[in-house]
Amino acid sequence: MRILKDDEIIAARGAVEIHLDNFQWPADPYASDSPIQPSSLDLTIGEIFVPPERVEPGCLLRSEALEDYSLSQGQTALVYTQEVIKLAGKIGAFGFPPASVSSRGLLMTNPGHIDPGFEGKLSFTVINMARDRFI
Q1: 71 has which bridge partners?
Q2: Between the CA atoms of 21, 26, 30 and 31, what dihedral angle is there, to the nearest 10 degrees?
Q3: Which residue, among 62, 45, 64, has the nearest Cα to 122 in the 3D structure?
């Protein structure tokens, strides 16, 4: 597997290799504020699920989807992307938070490989490792 460059990501738009639903393609994909970076694509947060503060053994975990949430120190959440990604059988991907998020103390506990042929929203568990709230 190899990492696609920005021009390859742009060329794959709507093609068989990579398909994104709910992704806002920029008018200028090379602008400084574009979600298309030199070798990555910035996705957006869709739904946020926060586990209850206290969990009893054997209980069924349920939580409502949130659109906005502020994490306190040490608090975790499950985050889904707004975008639905569809990869061809020969294209894989990696999921990592942007450096601007990581440098503020948000740790993503399950980043990594996204299998070729994956279809769906991506989900990531995050934990606020900073002293301040993560907004």
Answers
A1: 134
A2: -140
A3: 45
Which CATH number characterizes residue 75's domain? 2.70.40.10
> Whose structure tokens read 């894989």?
92
Tell me the residue range of the domain where 61 lies. 6-128
In 4-63, which residue ranges form alpha helices assigned H by DSSP? 6-11
Q: What value does the mean pLDDT of the chain take?
A: 81
3-class secondary structure, 79: strand
49 vs 79: CA distance, rounded Å: 6
pLDDT given at position 15: 62
How do residues 83-102 score in pLDDT, each as one tens digit? Answer: 898 888 888 888 888 888 88
**Both tokens of residue 125?**
């568990």
Residue whose tokens read 């998020």: 101
Query: What is the model's pTM?
Result: 0.76
Give the CA angle between residues 50, 62, 134 to the nearest 5°.
0
Closest CA to 17 of 83, 92, 81, 84: 92
In a domain, 111, yes or no: yes
Q: Structural domain tally of the chain?
A: 1
